[in-house]
Each structure stands twice: as C-alpha cells, then as structure tokens.
Specification:
The complex is a heterodimer of chains A (about 130) and B (about 650).
Chain A (H helix, E strand, L loop, with lengths): L1 E2 L6 H11 L11 H5 L10 H9 L3 H5 L3 H4 L5 H5 L6 H16 L14 H11 L2
Helix pairs in contact in A: 1-7, 3-7
Chain B lengths: L2 E6 L11 H9 L4 E7 L5 H14 L3 E6 L2 H14 L7 E5 L1 H5 L5 H20 L8 E3 L4 E4 L3 H12 L4 E4 L14 E2 L4 E2 H14 L3 E4 L2 E9 L2 E8 L14 H5 L3 E3 L8 E3 L1 E2 L11 E2 L5 H5 L4 H5 L12 E7 L1 E4 L3 E3 L16 E3 H8 L20 E8 L15 H15 L4 E6 L9 H10 L3 E4 L4 E4 L7 E7 L4 E7 L1 E6 L1 E3 L3 H8 L26 E3 L9 H21 L1 E3 L5 E3 L10 H4 L5 E10 L2 E10 L9 H5 L5 E3 L4 H10 L1
Parallel strand pairs in B: 1-2, 1-3, 3-4, 6-7, 6-18, 7-10, 18-29, 20-27, 21-22, 21-27, 22-23
Antiparallel strand pairs in B: 5-30, 8-9, 11-12, 12-17, 13-14, 15-16, 19-28, 24-25, 25-26, 31-34, 32-33
Helix pairs in contact in B: 1-5, 5-18, 6-7, 6-15, 11-12, 12-13
The chains are: A mainly alpha (about 130), B alpha/beta (about 650).
The complex binds iron/sulfur cluster (SF4) (4 copies).
C-alpha cells in the first residue's frame, strides 16, 4: 500500500461519523475485537484491520471486502473494546453507507438456524432490497 | 570470648530452602559458641529483643547473624550492639539468603552450605577488632554541576533552605535542553514561559552564585569537605561593564553554525546562547573569532559603547569548598547518521525531533514555521519514526529513551493545530505512555488525526520526483502489509545519551556509570538520588532518561539529601579505614599513588637500633580521607596494610574453616 492513495472524502468521513457517533481515530489497535470475533476465519480483513483502515480513511478497501457481510453483528467486539468504540457499530455504519449508495446488500446466509436476535435485525437490514 | 549465633528464617525466604533449625543446632557445636537460636524475623522487634535478651543472659560479646545480605540489615544489628554497650563491629553476618536460599534448589545441600557460611562467620568474629568513627564537620555549601532544569531546581531548593549554592554550567547561559523546547507535554505549556522565571530566580537568588561558561576541573576530599577547582573560561566581555545592548553581536562579521538551533541557523562569534539567556551578556567564542585567529578585526571592541570587550581576559581557576555535590549534567542526542537506512544527512528533509522542536519554536531558525529545509515550503505529509537508535542493540542504545513517544504525540498535535493541512504518520514499535495524563495525551494525538502505524521503518530514500520527496518504507502489523509513504518531511525521534564529557565528571566525582554511561544511583529503588560516593547526589537525565517532571522531582530529592546533610552539620567518618602496622611497614610508599583519595602520606617513626635512635619512614593514613576501598591493602607487599573489619587475619580465618 502506498500513500498518497485514494482516501474517503470529507463527506464520506462525516457520513460514517454521523451514523456511528464514534471517532474511529480513537482506536489504539489492541486487537481485542479480532481476538474475540467468532467469524474471523471467514473474513478477509479482521475487525481490527477494518478499524485501522477506517482510521486511515481507506474506506474503499473495506467496501470491497467480504468482512462487512460476514460480520454477524454478534456484538462480541463492541462489548469488549477497551476504547468503547463498538466495532460492530462501525461495521454497521460502513454497511449502511454501501446500502445507501447501491440500495442493496450482498449477504450470504451461512447458518440460517440459531441466529441471535440482534444479528437477525441487522441481517434484515443487510438483506433489504 | 562468647559467641552467640542467630539464624533467621526470613519468613519462608530462607526457611523453605535451608533447614534453619539444623543450622542453629550445628552452630552450637562450633568453638566458642555459647548460644544459638533460630528466629522467624531477626530484623523485627521480636527478633531484636531475642538477641538483646541472649546477650544479657549468656554474656555474649560476639554476635553472628545468619540472614540476608549485610547491605540490608547490617546497620540494624550494629545499632543493637551499640545499644548493648558492644562495639558495632562485633557483629558478623553470614548471608544465607542471597548467597544461599535464593540461589539453590536442593535443600540438603543448601543447608550444608548455610552451615559452612555460618562457620566461616563465626571464625571471622574471633578476630574482630573494635572500630570507631569520628565526627567530621560539614561545609554547608553545595555545588551543582549542570545548569539545565534539574540543576536549576536543585540549586533553588538548596538556596531556599538557606544554604549557599554554586551552579556551574559549561555553556554561556543556564537553561539547558529545556530552553530549546517549544512546548512541553502533556499540558502544552510553553517551555520558555515556565523555564525563564526559574532561570531568573536562580540568577538573582542571594544564595546562588552562577558560574556559566565554566567547567569543573578537579574534585578532591570527601563528604562534607569537598575541594573543587572550577575553570571559568574567559568570556572576553567584562560582564560587570557590558550592558547587554547586543551591538557587538549585530556587527560581528563572523558567522558560525548555531548549536542552539541544532546547526540550522547562524550565530556570531560574539554571542548569547538565545534571546532569554541568563546571564544575558555575550561571550566571544575564541575558536571562531577572527581576532583570535588572525589578530585582525576587533570590530566589537570598536563598536561596544561601554568598552566591555577585553581580548586579553584569561581563564580563571576558582577553588571552593563544598559539603555536597549534585551532578545534573544532562544529555545529548545520538547522531542518527550511523543508522544509514534513515538517510539522515543525505537529504535535507530528514531531520531530528530536536530540529523540528526548534522549527516550532518562535525564536527558532524558522520563527515557528515548519518547513521542508529543501525548499522552505510547508510539508504536507510528515512521517515520524520512533525509536531511532533507542531499543537498538545493533547500532544504537539498548534502552528506551522514554520521552520520544510523548514528544512525538506533542509534535503531531502542534502540527495539527498550527498547520491543519499537514498529515502525520507515526511508525512505532509500541507507544509508551507511562505518566500522569500521558495516555490521555496520546489519545488526543490520535483523536486529532495522527496516524499511528505499528512497525519500524526499514528504509527512507529519495523518491526522485520533481518535489524531491522521500519514500518511507515500513510495515503495519495490524493490516499486515508493507506501507510506503511519499513524505515531504521525515522526523527522527533520536535516542538520548549521557552528555559528552560526563564520563570525565564521573571520574572526577568517583561515580560509577552503567554500561550505557548514565551515572549509577546507590540503589535502583530505595536510593535513587544517592550515589555510592557519600555526599554526591544525582538529578535529571545524567542518571537515566527522564521527562521534565521526573527530572525536577529528582532534583528536589537530591537537594533534600544535601539539605539533610547540612542540617545535621556533621558526618560520621568511615570506620572501616586502612590501618598500617608500622612494625612491618617498610616505608616503600608504593601504596601512596594507588590511593584514589590521597589519604596516604609518609611519616617517620623513631626507633632504637643497635643503641642508636633512628628515624624510619612508614605509611600513614589520614582516617578522615580514607574511604576503606582496600587498594592499598591489596598492594602492600609486606602485608603491613589492613582494612578495619576485613583484616588479613579475619579473611584468613574464614578461608581456613572452609
Ligand atoms: S460484531 Fe461482527 S466484527 Fe464484531 S465480533 Fe461479532 S461478528 Fe466479529
Ligand atoms: S477492540 Fe477497540 S481499540 Fe481494540 S483494536 Fe478493536 S476497535 Fe480498536
Ligand atoms: S573580534 Fe571576534 S567577536 Fe569581535 S567582531 Fe570580530 S569576530 Fe566578532
Ligand atoms: S583503603 Fe587505602 S587506598 Fe583505599 S582510601 Fe584508604 S588509604 Fe586510600
């Protein structure tokens, strides 16, 4: 990766901040979110990497990754982040941005049974057409 | 002779690895031992009472303690003996903790060893001789070496306590490194604003005498009675006449790289170190002055309205006496040129943090503007590299310089505030923020947009574009990718090192230094400001990397030690001094030159030989000067020299029992 590279516009940064009401720049890369995430084996970028990319304004990379759609919104990361950054919320915010842009999501349901309620609500948003 | 033996459990520290009851039983069988006991905690009041009772009941006159290192509690036991009317040197300690229980894993063997150690101590105790110390008067005046913030603070504290202090600084002004800084973390106070009042106070304090442009030449004596030679370099400007108008500095034709701006500006051959210098009167730098080189010029003399220039001034040596000395010699930064991967010295836009600090400073070379030295433009992408030469066993220093993480955070904040269009990237191994408010400060830097990348930079090289940019290659372990940044400016957080010349000061003061050259404290935890040399204390970075609040606290601690010494007014001399057996001393005086304290002199004894009176030379010890180092005893070929508490007889008795 070489800088300067394409980074999110001020408008996009503002949009994310408005949705998540958090400052991703607060993340200090302790890696705890990735440590507890149950789905990392299906992700191309791990939660902490999503956080770092968001912090570096490299949204494009996240938008093109699988991770946002693999994330089950289980909130394990959010409940444990020592900076109270709620990575799940950040994921959700980034997803929302894509959905707003394209008006569609692209989720593949891996395990339709036993989905936690929060995840279900989130999935409905993801699956929404 | 009636020996009593006491074996300590030290809770479980000794007892777990040594069968203390067995050692006490064995001790009973040793010659002249009339009493033996094991005790849970010998240093406790109960333990002390046990010893005291045994001394009374069994009329003990030698005490052998099997416990921890004498460094810990020797004085505790000595005081007890003294209170019982026995000479404190009638106690002997066998170290069965550090030298036995803590280092062994086989209880049976450790018990045998502990018994041996006790046996050895018992044998030594037979030959103990009573030792006394004298009370020596303390000269209630302090010397502080180094006029940075630590030295200034130490001098002010001692002066405020009512004692006179001399403050020696080798530069023409006090202020030290802190005077170079722009802002201080984590409060972003303006460095000069908080420093200059202290500088002025030090200069005007009735109890403080400043010796600027001066160096310590020689130190003799001992605690309470140091004799120090200070060389005042010729300033070539009569300080009492000069009114500080600065006309000379303006007119002087000779320009020299300005060390205060890390060489990034010019000063004149006649100069003050910085605008708020204290004293604020110029000196002539003779190495660069045209007059001293060629005999021509002399412009400053012509221009000076008060006729203060004096080309014939000479260096002056002043000799003063002090009771205590505080070393506060400060630090230098490591030249990053050895670490060639960072390209420092090969591209103008690779600079050190201290150079950036000067750029940020309103009185610095760029009047507070941050620029790319190559073209004078404001940089947009700035890469900070942490740990340049720190934590680097290969080409740098193994230790952490402690302040770089925080001052880099400060730099990113200042840049963000002054030049919001700049972008800061910080490559780091990890960010260390131990200190009050420091983590929050780092948080603020991140919040304001500083991009921290976890990984060290491996290469800085020119990009070869029209803008003459730099390409910085690193790796971020979080993303797990190589990261390259096209940077306008690269700032290196260079390692802190002991001040050049501090090893000479260590030699003069008799201080030991650690492998990195920082002065060693007497105990890393409990005596952080004292040194092994009594009456000499440490303040600031000369003892190890520190930030300003730490340096100031240590300075106040060091000055408190000096004040305690002055309040007491007298010190006990070392009782374990050298002793000459005049009967066998051949008077060769080989011992005289080896004594580092100049305690040995030649004296004469009068004897009758073959009916005639003859005078024979022998070595003689000045007990006030001798520190009991043992150099002379080790050297003496006739075996005439002994050290009290460690006589050859005592040592041989120990060896014989093994
Ligand atoms: S919310 Fe998403 S990113 Fe966070 S732990 Fe759960 S699956 Fe992983
Ligand atoms: S747990 Fe929070 S602070 Fe730690 S890496 Fe994840 S988002 Fe960042
Ligand atoms: S004599 Fe020396 S100090 Fe004076 S003006 Fe000339 S060069 Fe400068
Ligand atoms: S022990 Fe000997 S060498 Fe050491 S200080 Fe005393 S006299 Fe000097």
């Amino acid at each position: 990766m070489r800088f300067p590279t394409k980074t999110a516009s001020i408008k996009e940064q503002q949009e994310l901040a408005d949705i998540i009401q958090k400052n991703v720049k607060d993340c200090y890369q302790c890696l705890k979110c990735s440590a507890g995430c149950p789905l990392t084996e299906h992700m191309d970028y791990y939660p902490h990497q999503v956080m770092l990319l968001a912090k570096m304004d490299l949204y494009e990379k996240i938008f093109n990754s699988k991770t946002l759609w693999v994330c089950a919104s289980c909130l394990a990361c959010s409940s444990r982040c020592p900076r109270d950054l709620e990575p799940a919320k950040v994921m959700e915010g980034l997803r929302t941005m894509i959905i707003r842009k394209r008006g569609e999501g692209n989720v593949e349901v891996v395990n339709p049974k036993g989905v936690p309620r929060q995840a279900l609500i989130s999935s409905m948003r993801k699956l929404r057409r | 002779m009636r020996v009593g033996v006491f074996i300590c459990w030290c809770g479980s520290n000794i007892k777990n690895m040594v069968d203390v009851e067995k050692v006490a039983k064995e001790a009973e069988k040793m010659p002249r031992v009339v009493y033996s006991q094991d005790v849970q905690y010998l240093c406790s009041e109960v333990g002390q009472a046990d010893i005291s009772k045994a001394i009374d009941e069994h009329k003990l006159d030698r005490i052998v303690i099997g416990a921890c290192s004498p460094r810990m509690h020797e004085s505790t036991f000595q005081q007890l003996l003294e209170s019982k009317g026995l000479n404190p040197y009638y106690v002997e300690i066998a170290n069965i903790r550090e030298q036995c229980s803590w280092v062994h894993t086989d209880k049976d063997k450790a018990t045998v060893k502990a018994t041996e150690l006790v046996k050895k101590a018992v044998a030594k105790s037979y030959h103990a001789i009573p030792l006394t110390s004298d009370l020596l008067k303390v000269n209630k005046k302090a010397l502080v070496i180094g006029g940075g913030i630590a030295g200034i603070q130490a001098a002010l504290d001692i002066a405020d306590a009512g004692y006179p202090v001399d403050l020696v600084e080798q530069k023409p002004s006090i202020g030290g490194r802190m005077a170079q800084f722009d802002k201080t973390f984590p409060t972003l106070d303006c460095s000069a604003c908080i420093l200059t009042p202290k500088m002025v106070e030090a200069a005007t304090h009735e109890n403080i005498t400043l010796y600027t442009y001066s160096e310590v030449e020689n130190v003799a004596g001992y605690v309470g009675n140091f004799k120090v030679k200070i060389k005042q370099k010729a300033k070539s400007v009569k300080q009492d006449i000069c009114n500080g108008c600065g006309d000379c500095m303006e007119k002087c034709p000779k320009k020299v790289a300005n060390e205060f701006d890390e060489g990034n500006s010019k000063r004149k051959a006649i100069y003050t170190l910085f605008p708020q210098a204290v004293p604020n009167k110029p000196v002539i730098d003779r190495d660069n002055c045209i007059y001293y080189k060629t005999g021509k010029c002399g412009l400053c003399e012509k221009i000076c309205p008060t006729k203060a220039i004096d080309y014939n001034q000479e260096d002056e040596i002043v000799e003063n006496e002090y009771g205590a000395i505080i070393a506060a010699t400060g630090f230098d930064i490591k030249d990053p040129q050895d670490l060639s991967e960072y390209y420092y010295g090969n591209h103008p836009d690779v600079i050190t943090s201290l150079e950036l600090e000067r750029q940020l400073n309103a009185s610095g070379p760029t009047s507070g503007k941050v620029i790319r030295p190559s073209n004078g433009k404001t940089p947009e992408k700035i890469v900070f590299v942490q740990c340049v030469g720190s934590r680097d066993r290969n080409k740098g220093n193994a230790y952490c310089s402690k302040v770089c993480c925080l001052y880099t955070a400060k730099h990113t904040l200042l840049l963000n505030e002054k030049f919001p269009e700049t972008e800061s990237y910080v490559f780091n191994i990890d960010v260390r923020t131990g200190g009050k408010g420091y983590e929050e400060f780092y948080e603020r830097a991140r919040h304001k947009g500083a991009k921290y990348l976890r990984g060290q930079v491996s290469k800085v090289e020119p990009l070869g574009d029209a803008d003459n940019k730099l390409l910085v290659r690193g790796y971020d372990s979080s993303i797990g990718e190589q990261v390259e940044i096209e940077a306008d400016l690269v700032v290196l957080a260079t390692s802190i090192e002991p001040k050049v010349g501090s090893s000479k000061i260590a030699g003069l003061l008799g201080l030991s230094s650690d492998s990195d050259g920082f002065f060693s404290e007497a105990h890393p935890k409990l005596k952080p400001v004292e040194t092994q040399a009594q009456g000499i204390y440490l303040a600031g970075v000369c003892q190890g990397p520190k930030d300003i609040p730490e340096a100031v606290s240590q300075a106040s601690g060091a000055s408190a030690k000096a004040i305690i010494l002055f309040n007491k007014g007298e010190v006990k001399s070392v009782p374990t001094t050298a002793m000459v057996n005049e009967e066998i001393c051949s008077g060769c005086m080989q011992c005289k030159p080896v004594c580092p304290y100049e305690a040995i002199s030649r004296e004469y004894v009068t004897e009758r030989v073959a009916g005639k009176e003859v005078k024979r030379p022998v070595a003689s010890i000045n007990r006030a000067l001798c520190q009991g180092c043992g150099a002379c005893a080790g050297l003496c070929r006739s075996g005439a020299m002994d050290i009290g508490g460690f006589t050859s007889k005592q040592i041989m008795a120990e060896v014989d029992t093994l």
